[in-house]
User: Which sequence fits this backbone?
């Protein structure tokens, strides 16, 4: 039994407000570092506008971007009963309170639901025997989400083809996903699991070292290759194309090699909470799987 | 930074060159996918489109809060490429001389811009609070039935920006130039020369 200090609905509202109005500290550091080493004047002006905007959003407690996205939730550890309904209620309240743009529409009629929920909240569950519940939210803007790609590669393709696919995906997206982006890479699983891994990778803070040395190397090589491309902030040219690359892997079928790319714009919004069984609550703006 | 009066006329548009940084003061109107579709179907039917005619069009779906009147909370640019199919007609038939957005537009739209004297101004994607600070008030809302993001919002702006001339009326496009540079660097990299 977990003792709840406040309702899940209140926690969802708190997570969304933090994610929408405050850049995660690691993302802010990455942007500040990029602004310091950027050599292109147009790129510097773009990074300057981004940093200026981020401080204003934090100070005024306003969403940093008007595309407040569709909120994607991850529930890990103990899965509380009724969590889906609490998430839906929290999102609807956040939509009016923060406020968020009502983005959820029916896919065919394009009718706006008004509450950012529509047919139901987007929730991924990862049950475990942990004595806590971890709830994370990734508000996903359409500019970045629309550039998602999945490749069902051949096992013999290997590392170079994986890197080539990720690089091409990011560069062909050009300025549309609002670079500098954070690149989430999923390797393995099935088609659906692979894309979920790529998305989950976006929860990992940029300053956390990947415990898998093979993935760490892949992240580093992609980071260097993408930032030497010259695409730059907003696709207007420059040295800063990505703020980070995060990769997760899972077992897959012996005849498969799925690779997925899921991007976050520079406004790499995320927030997490851990509610322990003794009632202690820890809020963060990033989580490691 | 140069401050231009909005809506821009052809002379102002023609005076700008790729890479120039500008601010806008005056009146701009927002329009996204649905507003473009509606405007062009009205134009096809031979109707006037006073909502967008001659306007400086901003590809933006703002967050607007209704308290004492409308207040713009966040108003950054949306991806202009979604309006590519409608771009050439919007420039030719609606007399638009400046488009504000992010990510740039198609070659066909750029051709229409060169022909009619129109510029594409890149706003920083996601800089929604900074850009909203440049919006002084909402003058009107048209096509409310399209919802908050897709309505046409007529906005009074002051020192709105910063904006970068990314596609000028003389044929230069920062996006095209960047793409060529990216392809060249990737080719050199593949050949082990970089």
Assistant:
């Amino acid at each position: 039994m977990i003792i709840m200090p406040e309702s899940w609905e209140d926690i969802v509202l708190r997570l969304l407000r933090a994610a929408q109005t405050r850049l995660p500290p690691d993302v802010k550091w990455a942007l500040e570092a990029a602004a310091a080493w950027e050599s292109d004047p147009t790129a510097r002006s773009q990074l300057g506008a981004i940093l200026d905007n981020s401080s204003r959003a934090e100070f005024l407690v306003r969403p940093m971007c008007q595309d407040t996205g569709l909120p994607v939730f991850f529930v890990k550890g103990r899965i509380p009963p009724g969590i889906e309904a609490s998430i839906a209620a929290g999102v609807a309240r956040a939509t009016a309170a923060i406020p968020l743009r009502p983005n959820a529409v029916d896919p065919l009629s394009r009718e706006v639901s008004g509450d950012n929920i529509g047919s139901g909240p987007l929730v991924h569950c990862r049950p475990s025997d942990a004595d806590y519940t971890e709830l994370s939210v990734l508000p996903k803007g359409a500019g970045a989400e629309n550039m998602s790609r999945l490749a069902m590669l051949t096992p013999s393709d290997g590392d170079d083809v994986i890197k080539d696919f990720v690089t091409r995906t990011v560069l062909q997206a050009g300025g549309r996903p609002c670079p500098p982006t954070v690149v989430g890479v999923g390797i393995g699983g099935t088609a659906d699991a692979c894309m979920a891994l790529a998305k989950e990778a976006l929860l990992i803070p940029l300053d956390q070292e990947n415990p898998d040395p093979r993935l760490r190397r892949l992240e580093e090589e992609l980071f260097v290759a993408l930032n030497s491309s010259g695409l730059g902030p907003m696709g207007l040219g420059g040295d800063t194309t990505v703020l980070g690359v995060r990769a997760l892997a899972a077992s897959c079928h012996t005849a498969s090699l799925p690779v997925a790319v899921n991007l976050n714009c520079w406004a790499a919004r995320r927030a997490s909470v851990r509610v322990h069984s003794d009632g202690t609550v820890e809020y963060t703006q990033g989580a490691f799987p | 930074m140069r401050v231009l009066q909005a809506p821009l006329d052809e002379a102002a548009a023609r005076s700008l060159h790729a890479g120039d940084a500008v601010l806008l003061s005056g009146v701009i109107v927002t329009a996204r996918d649905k507003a473009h579709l509606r405007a062009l179907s009205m134009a096809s039917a031979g109707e006037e489109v006073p909502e967008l005619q001659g306007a400086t069009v901003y590809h933006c779906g703002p967050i607007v809060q209704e308290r004492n009147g409308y207040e713009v909370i966040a108003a950054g640019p949306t991806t202009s490429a979604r309006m590519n199919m409608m771009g050439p007609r919007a420039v030719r038939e609606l007399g638009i001389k400046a488009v504000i957005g992010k990510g740039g537009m198609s070659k066909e739209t750029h051709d229409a811009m060169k022909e009619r004297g129109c510029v594409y101004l890149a706003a920083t994607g996601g800089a929604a609070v900074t850009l909203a600070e440049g919006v002084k008030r909402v003058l009107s809302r048209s096509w409310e039935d399209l919802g908050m993001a897709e309505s046409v919002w007529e906005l009074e702006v002051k020192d709105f920006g910063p904006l970068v001339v990314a596609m000028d009326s003389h044929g230069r496009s920062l996006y095209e130039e960047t793409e060529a540079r990216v392809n060249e660097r990737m080719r050199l990299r593949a050949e082990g020369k970089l």
